[in-house]
Amino acid sequence: MDASEEPLPPVIYTMENKPIVTCAGDQNLFTSVYPTLSQQLPREPMEWRRSYGRAPKMIHLESNFVQFKEELLPKEGNKALLTFPFLHIYWTECCDTEVYKATVKDDLTKWQNVLKAHSSVDWLIVIVENDAKKKNKTNILPRTSIVDKIRNDFCNKQSDRCVVLSDPLKDSSRTQESWNAFLTKLRTLLLMSFTKNLGKFEDDMRTLREKRTEPGWSFCEYFMVQEELAFVFEMLQQFEDALVQYDELDALFSQYVVNFGAGGA
């Protein structure tokens, strides 16, 4: 969470964009679980229920996991979805009372304050339990105690926003059960955030389209907005929905040309 980070490179919109998830906290810890996480996340489909009576669909979620930086958080007025971080995860394997009080608690506080400042409400705290590390520590809290402490300090009435991942690199039934529970929570939160923010984006797009008869309305600007929606559907492998956006743009442009020729645009 260093403010002196170098400026981010420009985002290139491609058909291979994935929903962005930021990762704060222990980066080495996240790096160790990333291979398994990236493989397991898209394996189980999730039912995607959308508004306006549209039929639910089964989708496989993938994500682009990036290191948390404040510069990634959307600024006021920026409604782009392809660069929008849909979920923020804080990773820790702290089980030492002194370490928690000295560093982790303060770092978590700073992280949550940055999110609140940008009205980012979609987040998750992951506590990785590692039996091998526990054996080498003296100031150990029982796992339930450290989880309860973090939940009391940061989760308030959202206790489900703090989850435990037990020995993620082991090959055991306990580890697999822990992975399954974590992945279900991650998919659920990611899909909830995606559905909410996509709904806002579509509402704003409809509002913009309804202004097409007003002076100064730009088809080119509107095209960029609806094309981004097509990219978003492509990102979820909803190819028919993506093509519908271009069909609608084609019809809108045809009408725009007719109106322009008639002096109405």
Automatic annotation (TrEMBL):
InterPro entries: TRAPPC10/Trs130, TRAPPC10/Trs130_N. GO terms for biological process: early endosome to Golgi transport; intra-Golgi vesicle-mediated transport. Residues 16-263 form the TRAPPC10/Trs130 N-terminal domain. GO terms for cellular component: cytosol; TRAPPII protein complex. It comes from the Eukaryota. It holds the Pfam family TRAPPC10_1st. This is TRAPPC10 isoform 3. It comes from Pongo abelii (Sumatran orangutan).
